[in-house]
């Protein structure tokens, strides 16, 4: 799967409000994806930090792309569990979401996600997910 294929999945299968996040696929591979969440003041909470809800939605979406890449294309799936730990605020920087599929089964997929502010050395958040493969 190419980044262009993943961008097509974003366009074809996600709700308009997810598309409004402006996510851009930087890289896809056999069991991973890197997606950019561009900084936007409309996603900032009081105090100027990027809101956690936007980061969680971006991580969830990027996971679908990583699983799709691992399976060779999009199949229906749904989030069963997502656990996120926020470690530091993000202000005025894009966030890079690096998803690694750690187990891909017939009906379940597991992943680990690292969220980094562009140009920073330490994660802003980490997440883990479990997905049910429906198709």
Name a few traits of the molecule:
alpha+beta, six-stranded antiparallel beta sheet, 3 helices
Report on the structure:
- This protein has 135 residues and is of the alpha+beta class.
- The chain contains 3 helices and 6 strands, in the order H-H-E-E-H-E-E-E-E.
- Strands 1-2-4-5-6-3 form a 6-stranded antiparallel sheet.
- The mean pLDDT is 96.
Structural class: alpha+beta
Q: Report Rg.
A: 14 Å
**Large-scale geometry:** globular
Unreliable residue stretches:
none
How much helical structure, as a percent, in the residues? 25-40%
Number of strands: 6
Topology pattern, helix = H, strand = E:
HHEEHEEEE
Largest sheet properties? 6 strands, antiparallel
- For the biggest β-sheet, the strand order reads 1-2-4-5-6-3
List the helices and strands and how they pair.
Elements (H helix, E strand, L loop, with lengths): L2 H11 L2 H4 L4 E5 L3 E6 L14 H20 L5 E10 L8 E10 L3 E10 L5 E11 L2
Antiparallel strand pairs: 1-2, 2-4, 3-6, 4-5, 5-6
């Amino acid at each position: 799967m190419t980044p262009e294929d993943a961008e097509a999945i974003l366009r074809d299968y996600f709700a308009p409000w997810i598309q409004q996040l402006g996510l851009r696929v930087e890289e896809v591979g056999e069991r991973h994806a890197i997606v950019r969440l561009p900084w936007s003041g409309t996603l900032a909470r009081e105090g100027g930090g990027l809101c956690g809800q936007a980061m969680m939605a971006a991580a969830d979406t990027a996971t679908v792309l990583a699983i799709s890449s691992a399976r060779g294309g999009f199949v229906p799936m749904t989030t069963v569990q997502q656990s996120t730990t926020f470690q530091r605020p993000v202000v005025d920087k894009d966030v890079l979401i690096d998803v690694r599929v750690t187990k891909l089964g017939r009906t379940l997929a597991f992943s680990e996600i690292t969220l980094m502010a562009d140009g920073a050395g330490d994660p802003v958040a980490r997440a883990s997910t479990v997905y049910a493969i429906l198709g």
